[in-house]
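Bench log, entry 3. Co-assembly request; chain sequences pasted below exactly as received.
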Amino acid sequence: MCDSDFLKGMAMAQEVTISVDALGGDNAPSVVLEGCEQALAADSQLHIILCGPAEVVEPFAATHERCEAVATTESISMGEHPANAVRKKKDSSLVVGARMVKEGRAQGFFSAGSTGACLAAATLVMGRVKGVARPALASVVPSPVRPVVMSDIGANADCKPEYLLQFAVMATVYAEKIIGIENPQVAYLNIGEEEEKGSQFAQEVHKLLREKLPNFAGNAEGGDIMQGTYDIIVTDGFTGNVCIKTIEGTAKVLFKSLKGIMMSSLATKLGALTLKGGLKELMASVNADTYGGAPILGVKGACLVGHGSSNATAIKNGILTSANVVRTNVSEVIADYFAKNSKPASEEAKEA
Amino acid sequence: MCDSDFLKGMAMAQEVTISVDALGGDNAPSVVLEGCEQALAADSQLHIILCGPAEVVEPFAATHERCEAVATTESISMGEHPANAVRKKKDSSLVVGARMVKEGRAQGFFSAGSTGACLAAATLVMGRVKGVARPALASVVPSPVRPVVMSDIGANADCKPEYLLQFAVMATVYAEKIIGIENPQVAYLNIGEEEEKGSQFAQEVHKLLREKLPNFAGNAEGGDIMQGTYDIIVTDGFTGNVCIKTIEGTAKVLFKSLKGIMMSSLATKLGALTLKGGLKELMASVNADTYGGAPILGVKGACLVGHGSSNATAIKNGILTSANVVRTNVSEVIADYFAKNSKPASEEAKEA
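Structure output for the full assembly:
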């Protein structure tokens, strides 16, 4: 699925305000500003509240329609302890960005900054949806076969089976609303297809999903993720994080090796020219940036985290996807579900 | 690293007998027989005890030097419960193959059959090395950068931190003896580089390895595996199994997509011709079969498990690597280590 396919389904009728962390990402603020400019141009109903140093955000807002500047004095770096940084640096671009949603000035927040700090800010500042035991970090796995939603990919290293049931429910809403998959099927990432496979924990998760999740399709294995065997892969945040980084690392190494082969002689260089278009598409299809970042599911409002290495296009996609999450009411649908269906499950989780 | 590089370092001076499961693998017995023939031709000091149905193994042994037939009447299929099948089917080719090592008629056993059944047979029939709490299934991860030993990749879904210390020690011996890496460095597969990252379990493992493993290099992330950042990746069998299958699945999907691009027009077909040689090498380098299967470490004698989809070359490599494991005394060095160094650790593990 290429960039334009993914974005073309978005309804752009409704006015939406997204707060953006001007200091998020390795190449901030320049690519963030470029990304904001592109997003504003692409979506005429989009408003941006740009949070960052006055000298960065004010000149940008002054020269761009539908953009408001909120000057901040602090920044959170990648290396800082997430929760401590969020608690201490109340005037950081990241925390202020999240606060804009809490205060109702924006409906969604986007940052390509520290994932941990975004998770902490989403949970501590924006707040959990009632009934959600643990918000999850989801991702649209960049498979050339088709997009696969995976959750949790790193918010919760220690999980209880009940959490995974909630991750599955929230990912189902995201897959339906944002990826446009009808009646998406969820599989649990395990080490074998049979229900008795895996650790004690894995067996408990399988049993719980089998009992409580109507769209549960059984166990998946590692090979199923990229092959797009299932719409949604649910997993604990430890396994999910290792897996998503393994996919990225594997693709990176293979593309690098391929490039080496293509550059090895004049003949291979000429041969490679014929493949250039196809390869560019393939590389784009396995680029996570196409899907605009990783959503934090289970918090009040939209919150997406971009890759630290995001370029302007990735920032643009992240902001537009955040607006789409707002317009399709992902957070509200999740809140409704937990209000109606899973009070007992969330109580159990709290008690356990 | 191509096939010949990997095999050329093997010392072939010493006579070795390997028992082989004639019924192991999706294409058994035909590819197993072909593989045996190739292995016998490649190693003049190799003897094979071929275990399987009389009508399969006897004609082969009669026409091949250094090959003995042991007729068996049962077989274990991929779908059977491993431990139950091994306990019940005492005259299966897989169990009899393992028993040949137990009885001292062979020094190593190779099968491309059910991994679970091989693990059960290795543990129940061949027996654990004294001091080893849990044998591990290791693998040489097929990276085009360099071979990386990963353990455990699926023998132990539920682990204690002490097990991972032992997996690391055993993988160190394998990496030194079989892959030829001097002073190999071990990293622990976690979700961040910092020691405080990961689940409770991950933090305990990190602390233990930091204290007790001299060649511990710290935490690795998923992206490090294929990039060959470390010589050895140690992990629990759940994460390891998911990861190794994720790598295989990712490589498979990318090569398939690449093939699609190359076949899309006459121009791309011609262009692809120039890359054929390089691509063939790349695909071989990411083929697990090159390294002759996954060793079970911590059992008495050599035991390697081939991929179910093994072709004759993979079977040959598996048998030759099994012989190499015997000749380099991998099992004995591991036994010596645990006899001298880790009695307290194994006692702790037993008690815990």
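Chain B has a mean pLDDT of 91. The radius of gyration of chain B is 20 Å.
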